[in-house]
Amino acid sequence: MSFFDYDGCQLHYEEYGHGAPLLLVHGLGSSTLDWEFQTAVLAAHYRVIALDLRGHGRSDKPIEHYSIAGFAEDVAALIEHLKLGPVHLVGISMGGMIGFQLGVERPELLHSLCIVNSGPEVKAKSFADCVQIAKRWSFSRLLSLDSIAKGLGKLLFPKPEQIELRLKIERRWPRNDKRAYLASLDAIIGWGVRDRLSHISCPVLVVSGDRDYSSVASKEAYVSEIADARLLVIEDSGHASPMDQPETFNAQLLNFLEEVTARARQANNKPKKTRTSKTC
Does the global pTM surpass 0.90? Predict the structure, then answer.
């Protein structure tokens, strides 16, 4: 268990394994525990760093305005604090949004991006979108964290055989600080960097559960706007793909990272062209 201070906030992170740095960024209301089915597998190949964002987990929960840009600054500060250089970054849900923010603002910090069940904006495009956003905003304030946890557990893991995963959510979610949770939710609503996706210069893998909150089609649309991106759909999976389909997710992520590494190695080994001068 390690901590570092940035911008008046003590941030908690954990490290596993050795090798090229791989940074894991959790979603709204979660923590490093999001990655319990990934860390050991990934640490066999990479130096894995998992961060608790401000307002979450063991990190401080300052009373202030939160923003996706601010979360991204925290992640960048950790990369620089540990002198990691460019990292492979995996972000789920809100963590994916933070990945997009870094991709457009600090592309030099990223070797690759894996975006899991997320998107580059949370903006209402229709009256129905406005209603859904308003409902989530309102219910999050009216309901207790225990009630939210029970509803979320059923939504994420609806099958009878997923009871252990549901219970994990029901136990973990109420540990959140309600004020920090709501501030983080407010950071998401209205955020967007879709108009700057062309700034992303690293390879991108977008992972979607076939039963995620947002459609596969919506992800296909934004993937087409990124220069070097592909979409992977995981079948029989909801919003928490790393938890409900860990073996498939882990295998596909490792395949992607291995390909990115191989491409970089090949590019570095290409002989450089030299200029020859002509004499008369």
Answer: yes
